[in-house]
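Hi, here's the filled form for the chain we discussed.

Project: internal
Contact: R.S.
Residues: 118
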Amino acid sequence: MVTERRVWQRAEALRRLGGDEELLRELCQIFLEESPKLLQKLRQAVVYGDPEAALQAAHCLKGELSYLGAGKASQIARQLQDMADDKDLSQAAEKLAFLERELANLHCAMKDSAGMLR
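And the returned structure, exactly as it came back:
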């Protein structure tokens, strides 16, 4: 699937997990349940100009995305983390919009992946 290859390197994530399909399935399910909560925290932090909360949420998302092989989304989360670390959220809303689109695509790719959600 083109979308999966673009937003999610499933094979890379599987390699990191030693080929354990069941573990990958479990981690993806957890991510699909928890990432909207982190995204909401990040969104609120950006809206209210709270760099500390933005830093925490962006850092968590970045790590999860990187581990799961979602390089582009991880890069965007890293940029948001850097903005928050610099205490400058003036461009964060624009980056957040990119991250939201990338996460929506990632969620679709994970759900569409053969056997991912049984």
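Let me know if anything looks off before we file it.
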